[in-house]
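Homework help thread (please don't just give me the answer)

Our assignment gives two proteins as sequence + structure token strings and asks us to describe the second one. The first is just a warm-up. Here they are:
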Amino acid sequence: MFVTRFAPSPTGRLHKGHAFSALTAWGAARAAGGRFLVRIEDIDPTRCRPEFEAGILEDLAWLGLDWEQPVRRQSDHLTDYAGVVDVLDRRGLLYRCFRTRKEILDAIGDAPHGPAEAVRPGPHPADEEAVLLAEGRPFAWRLSLDRAREALGGRAWEALAFVEEGEGPAGERGLIRARPETAGDVVVARKDAGAAYHVAVTNDDDLQGVTHVIRGRDLFEAAHVQVLLQALMGWPTPVYRHHRLLTGEDGRRFAKRDQSMTLAQLKAEGVNPVTLRAELGF
């Protein structure tokens, strides 16, 4: 069965771009006779707010969307994601990285081979790591591409791919070979903040049986990392459908900073949701 989801982060109210994405996924599920889920991706406690979550659900209902209950809230399932990180760690696929973002950016400037080398800082020497741990320094768990390639084997690594039913930023579509190396050794967890986005998303897509990931084109590159995690965890890879991004009159894509374009503001100004849906092509 066709299963898709709309998965906003409650860091602000929805805007027109979110409405377009939600309607695209909801419409695809209805056309396929499938299921439409709403998932609240709120693993960042510094930016996510309960009032924004309530506002998001209010906005979706105002648009005329319906979805299955209960809504999955990621902050209620942090132990699930910690379990994934633990599996990857026990398989020897992760390493601790104590380097700050500034230190990594400085290394990019000094690297003789350019930025591609800098996103793969590699593990610290054992004696250095022991000292840093003893000092209680914060660190991130990074996924080692070298170890992941070795764990999968050369053939499986070369076979990493996903089906794109929409279109990537450069017109990519069809069967696409995944290139997780372009993202480097991504952070999968932090000592003080739990699991990162890619872990939570891939875990939930598998758990909820998502068959089609329908989202904005700005997340196209994330698919390359997520395909690797799916392969490492033995999870199926959904079909991806990345859609165009809406832009304003100035040519910039809508963002949460554009308060005048939030659905709450449009509603307050008396905009009819049927009119807005027609404007967005639905």
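The one we have to describe:
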Amino acid sequence: MILWAVLVCVMASAQSAEKLYQQGKTLYDAKKYVEAVPKLQAAAEKGHKKAQYRLGYCYDKGRGVKEDDKKAFSWYSKSAAQGHAKAQYQLGRCYKKAEGTAQDYAKAVEWFTKAAKQDNADAQYALGKCYLKGQGVTADKEKARSWLRKAVRNEKDGDEIKKKIKKDAEEGDEDAKQILLLLK
């Protein structure tokens, strides 16, 4: 009987976290960031991994709150620890760029790898660049090529990655030019 009561409470809490997240996401998608943040915050505090990621993104970009890299890093960390690929990618980016934490290329690669293995195109691209430049890993053109190909062939975001590489190359970005040659 006690186990049943605990189970009902856990389910009610999870449902309310999901409901809060959905309300926050709807407001966020409507660009009503100031209204979205309290809903996302409440769901995030209940352990909702997507709310934690989105709240981290709000702090990262200053949407509805004052930009705060440390808070963004903290929320990304909580979500990433629960296996959320977008948060894992963002956490890797934080480590690579020293946003909200000390720069650590090896940790960046660790988080990019986790997200890339979940088919996150941004992480696949970032991981390919790390292998290309030898950041956090030993430089390896074949591994770079493999991850970069996965990124540009990614069903969900591959076209956006291709456009970004081409645009960057046209603007004189040497890394993008090297990536285009590598992908031929």
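TA reply:
I won't write it for you, but here's a hint about the kind of observation we're looking for: Confidence is low (pLDDT under 50) at residues 4-12.
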